[in-house]
Write a structure and sequence with these properties.
Distance between the termini: 18 Å
CATH class of the largest domain: Alpha Beta
Shape: globular
Radius of gyration: 20 Å
Order of helices and strands: EHEEEEEHEEHEHEHEEHEHEEHH
Bound molecules: adenosine-2'-5'-diphosphate
CATH architecture of the largest domain: 2-Layer Sandwich
Number of helices: 9
Strand order of the largest sheet: 10-11-9-12-15-14-13
CATH superfamily of the largest domain: Dihydrodipicolinate Reductase, domain 2
Number of strands: 15
Largest sheet: 7 strands, mixed
Structural class: alpha/beta
Strand content: 15-25%
CATH topology of the largest domain: Dihydrodipicolinate Reductase, domain 2
Length: 347
């Protein structure tokens, strides 16, 4: 085990930042010192950690001196801008943005799936896309039992994926529409309240949006299955903070739903929620604020012999972002993997 750790949260004033702060407190992370960083707009604000006020600082190169781990959640451009300074300061950046996820030199880690990948870091570890993490945690235990041949997934993604302001905007939109007024649309291209729309990321030549291709490429990287066939449809829905997904899996042989349920009942990070009699299954309101991915409606796909259907909900800000990042930080500390792999092997 390593010494106590100096941690900085970059993006401490955001939705994921707030959750990172709460998780470090809740999980009694082995902290020596905690630094809170955000844009100059937030410099001087105070946030509370373990009952003590901590003043938010504007991010600067000097801010990373003496820091062991930076939990970054301030968007891709901010991560790209500060990555070099963080690594040069000798810290490990656990990055919640998509900036480095597909970089072959950057491990993309979900501790329940590929913890060993974290050891190979060279100063940056990427936290996967939220929908990818939630799906991965739920289906990897099945994949280990019998390799998945094909995944077809549809997502129902909450406003929280677009940040704290977007969550606020959905509330304002709801109030505006109920008052017969024009809903504000700053975070989203269209009103989300009383509506839904396909995920608003750029669309490629094949007709898939960026969010959908993140699910494809990141799942392949995390599973170490570069040829896994995946097709995703990502949709924003007017839910505040937990994402839902309908997942169709195809195997080479039939996969008994009862066996899948047994496997998932003991799988790390998963809670099976199934009450067939009362038609009670995972819902975003039940997943909100919780750590596990809730999985239910595990059933045979009646359209093909080797297919399995399941439904899942998971808190986008917790396991989909902040919790996964904190688990990676815990892993680095527990295994003594804070030092970059190149340096660790050279010593
Ligand atoms: P700030 O509050 O000062 O703008 P969310 O994803 O919930 O919108 O949060 C984004 C987080 O990233 C906030 O903490 C925000 O700080 C921070 N952030 C945004 N842009 C920058 C930047 N250029 N430099 C540092 N932090 C930034």
């Amino acid at each position: 085990m390593s010494k106590l750790v100096n941690v900085a949260i970059l993006g401490a004033t955001g939705a994921v930042g707030a959750e990172l702060l709460q998780l470090l407190e809740e999980r009694d992370f082995p902290l020596n010192n905690l630094k809170l960083l955000a844009s100059p707009r937030s410099a001087g604000k105070t946030l509370t950690f373990k009952g003590q006020p901590i003043t938010v600082e504007a991010v600067s190169p000097e801010a990373f001196e003496g820091i062991d781990i930076v939990l970054a959640s301030a968007g891709g451009s901010t991560s790209k801008k500060w990555a070099k300074a963080i690594v040069e300061a000798g810290a490990v950046m656990i990055d919640n943005s998509s900036a480095f996820r597909m970089d072959p030199d950057v491990p993309l880690v979900v501790p329940e799936i590929n913890p060993a990948a974290a050891q190979k870091h060279q100063g940056i570890i990427a936290n996967p896309n939220c929908t990818t993490i939630l799906m991965g945690v739920a289906i990897y235990p099945l994949h280990q039992m019998q390799p998945i041949q094909r995944i077809v997934v549809s997502t129902y993604q909450s406003a929280s994926g677009a940040g704290a302001m977007a969550m606020e905007e959905v509330k304002q939109q709801t109030q505006a529409i109920l008052a017969g007024e024009e809903p504000p649309t700053e975070s989203f291209p269209y009103p989300l309240a009383f509506n839904l729309f396909p995920h608003n990321t750029p669309i490629d030549d094949a007709g898939y949006c960026e969010e959908e291709m993140k699910m494809v490429n990141e799942t392949r990287k995390i599973f170490g299955a570069p040829d896994l066939r995946i097709s995703a449809t990502c949709v924003r829905v007017p839910v505040l903070r937990a994402h839902s997904e309908a997942v169709n899996l195809e195997f080479a042989q039939p996969f008994e739903p009862a066996q899948a349920k047994d496997i998932l009942t003991t799988a790390p990070g998963v809670t099976v929620v199934e009450d067939w009699e009362n038609n009670y299954f995972p819902m975003p309101v039940d997943a909100t604020g919780k750590d596990p991915v809730l999985v239910g409606r595990i059933r045979r796909d009646i359209s093909q012999d080797n297919g399995l259907e399941l439904w899942l909900c998971g808190d986008q800000i917790r396991k989909g972002a902040a919790l996964n990042a904190v688990q990676i930080a815990e892993l680095l500390w527990e295994k003594d993997w804070l030092q970059p792999a190149a340096i660790a092997t050279a010593v």
